[in-house]
Structures are given as structure tokens and as C-alpha cells.
Amino acid sequence: MSFATFKDAMLSGETLVFGHRGAKDYAPMNTIPAFELALEQGAAGIELDVHRSKDGHPVIVHDFTVDATTDGDGNVVEKTLDELKRLDAGSWFSDEFTGLKIPTLDEVFEAVGDSLLINVEIKSMDTETDGVEQVVADCITRHNMRDRVLVSSFNPMTLKRFRPLLPHVMIGFLYMAGMQMDTESMIEGFAHEARHPYVDMIDEQYMTWANDNNYFVNTWTVNDPERAKELKSLGVNCVITDAPDLILKAIQ
Ligand code: G3P
Ligand code: MG
Q1: pTM surpassing 0.90?
Q2: Could you identify which of 122, 152, 207, 225 might form a hypothetical disulfide with 250, taking C-beta atoms 3.0 to 4.6 angstroms apart as the criterion?
Q3: Contacts of residue 147, Cβ cutoff 8 Å, sequence gap at least 6
Q4: Is the model's pLDDT at 11 over the cut of 80?
Q5: Residue 39 sits in which domain range?
Q6: With contact defined as beta carbons under 8 Å apart, do 105 and 118 qualify?
Q7: Which atom of ligand 1 lies closest to the CA of 21?
Q8: Hey, whose CA ends up nearest to atom 7 of ligand 1?
Q9: pLDDT per residue over 48-67, tens digit each?
Q10: With 90 as the cut, is the pLDDT of residue 204 above it?
């Protein structure tokens, strides 16, 4: 299933399947092969996580440190792109992927931007910004991806900072029960197009509330085929999964 714009996809009435950090179950998360595999498996899009490198590049890593997914250590934002590119982001997963590099958002757009919709999750835990929103906005503009992305974050401040930079890009608020801060009250009154709840938050009542408030609902992480079927029947717009092949088989 492919769509020209993110909005078309959200309005299609279909339940889309997105690869979470790519096809994360089968390839190292947040790398080009993981994104390409999601495409091969038939996903309509991918979700990925972005930070700003020390020298101002949008780089794709999940954690705030490189420790778990590379052969290096330390905070992502304290490393230059050159330093990040020297790391091996594949061998932690399996020998087959030894030597893989951390991609930039530019590289992802170049590799799969024409074929996949992209949910860009901005990672930020601060009330202050290191400029990550600007770096992401500039990259989206450079690649003419404005209509093919949706920007999400757990951090309401990040979303509020991003919106004026590219007002037409869709925005999704990420949340789950039991978060340390009451981010839901922080997002109140801020217009956004989508809610990105943790999968356990969704039931009929939630969907009624979301519809009444004109929110698209994109949920994570959906790895159980039976649950995916339920979510489809509830009218969820997108399920973000580690195994796009498995979930597509269940709901197509
Ligand atoms: O964007 C959905 C999901 O990725 C949010 O949580 O920690 O997997 O980035 P996390
Ligand atoms: Mg994420």
C-alpha cells in the first residue's frame, strides 16, 4: 500500500502498518537495511528516532547513548557526525550486519523517502532545546518531504517548538500511562493532528474520544497479530510494529 502524502494515508480509512525503527525484529534498529526491509515486507511507512549530533546533523539512534546499539559509548548529542559514523551499528545485532553505520535523516530520506511515509520521532527530554527541531525541519525542507512525514515526540515542548518551523507538517503526541511527568496536561490547548498512544491505552472508549477530538490514532508497539486485528476493527489509523510481515499477514 502506498500513499502520496501522510494525510492521504491517514484519511484512507485503512489501518496502515509501519515498521518500528524499521523491521526491528529482523535487522539492527534504525539502520538503512532495517528500513529497506520494512519496505520489502510491504509496510506503508517507518518510524524512526532522531537526535541532533554535536555538530548539527539529524542522526538516527533510539537511545540517548550509543552504548546499546554500537561498539562505542557516550551520549549521542555529545558526538560529531564523524565520530558517530566511525561506530559499528550492526554487529550488536548479528555478525551479518557488522560495519553498518548510524544513518542521518538525510540518508534515510534518500534511501526510502520516495517509497515510504516516515514518522520522525524527535528524542528530547529537556525543557530547553539543543536545536534538534530546527535541524529536523531543515532536513525535511531540503528533501521536500513536508507532505510525507509526521513528526512525533513524547516531549510537548519539542512539538510546540517544531510547529512554527513547518506549520503544515503533521504532528503526533506520544504518550503512555505512568509517565514521570504529566505531559498530557502540557499538551492541552496545543493543536495537533494525531495521538500516538501506547497500544494498551486503546479501547472503544478511547477511539470514540479520539474521533470526537479529530485525532488520528497511530499506536505502538503492535507485535501480536490478534491485537492488530482488534485495533483494525476499532479503526486505528496506523499500527507501528517490529515485525511488519507478521502484522500485515494478520490484517490484510
Ligand atoms: O514512536 C513510537 C515508539 O517508538 C515510541 O517509543 O521508545 O520505542 O521510541 P520508543
Ligand atoms: Mg520511537
Answers
A1: yes
A2: 225
A3: 4, 5, 6, 7, 168
A4: yes
A5: 6-49+113-251
A6: no
A7: 4
A8: 62
A9: 999 999 999 999 999 999 99
A10: yes
